[in-house]
Amino acid sequence: MFGYVVPYKPELKVREYEYYKAVYCGICLQTKKIGNLPRVFLNYDFVFLYLVLKEHFKVKDELGKTRCIVHPIKERFFLKPNEILEYVSNQMVLLSFFKLYDNILDEKNIFSYAPYSILKLYIRKITKSHREPFEKIKELFNKQISLEKSGCENIDELAHNFGNILAEIFAYNDEELLRQIGYYTGVWVYIIDAIDDYIDDVKKKRYNCLKHHFEKCRQDKRLFEYELSILKVSLENYLAILSDYVKGYNNSILNNIVQVGMYSKTQQVLERFTTNFFKELKE
Amino acid sequence: MRDPYEVLGVRKGASKEEIKKAYLELVKKYHPDKFKDNPLRELAEEKLKEINEAYNILMNDQYSNYEYSTYDQTSLYQQVRDLIMQGNIAQAESLLNQNPRNDAEWFYLMGIIYQKRGWINQAYRYFIEAYNRDPGNYEYRRAKEQFEMASRNYEWSAYNRGYRRHDDCDICTICQIIACWECCCDNDIDC
Fold first, then answer.
1. Is the ipTM of this complex over 0.90?
2. Which candidate in A137, A190, B172, B184 could, as Cys together with A159 as Cys, close a disulfide (CB 3.0–4.6 Å)?
């Protein structure tokens, strides 16, 4: 995940904000038990995963107070470990492993090798008990990579595959509803990330799944707006489905994330894309 | 199966020479010899299989010159609709893909198939196409507007919660900046 699934901060109550940060710290401290390295990959998206799982299984969580290496001066709240938190942190390690794996295959990046081999050891520890989902995610990841390698032009096919990866990650105890939430989060994240990276990717001549749609828009402003409006409608449709699922939990932070946070992220990314498209891509 | 024209990357109604040329190029690209000791080998093989299938379909006269096809149009679409009703999406899609036609209903049915699968972006594109080809049809218009409606409703709920465009530099932003300043190395949520 890439840090798009975040709340809209000005809309949060102070206690919600404090709680949100406490979950973040909780995941970080939990991950420390596995190892220090994966903590680098911590991001706010996993708080969303925790909140969804917590609401789904109606877990009562407790807060504690501690100092840590990032915040040595002030004591901060953190979430005391529970089963769900452990699951979330394991998933985070798993996903960062695949991210590195992707980097190695993709860019032959030497700097990814060392952390990759260390993470591999952790993975063995984590997946001892549940090997099956790991294999499934691995398979989906390989498919994603080969789809991108083959220059697939169908955004939906790619986003669908990525959605399935997140569905697997969200599906604690194989719950169908969680799978759906994971799927639509993944699809949205994939498309928004592709839009966000588009200009950079074109400049560096990297693969981007939107190329097929936007390549021909370079000279034609009307065509560009047409393509953009299709993307916008589909993104908002995905979010509308997601917000319907999340509404059932009646959790104000989750509602904030899906209804305002992700909405404003969408607007922000599309706006930046529109202003930069014709400015930056002049030949 | 995907649209054979799409698999080979040629336009609809391309001539046999064009199809053959595209086919040979793709075979060269995905030839197994090129993928020896490569993790992508299996995928290349799969792709090649698909290419071969598409080539065979297009080379078969019935499909490349679909005007002369012996299919009865209405019964085909009815068949597809029945399959969709039964929830047999995969078969409905392959039936449609085997009979590429350029009329509104074809695009509409394809849109339904993609919608059922949750591929909204693709579905919406097909509905727009169907609507453009036959703007008078109520069914097509409704399908297209349904998406726009969902999008608008969602947008509205976001606005109802008091969301304003946050990149305006108002007093709120200034407060935020000051707040961020205060907890300097605090890794705050960016928004």
1. no
2. A190
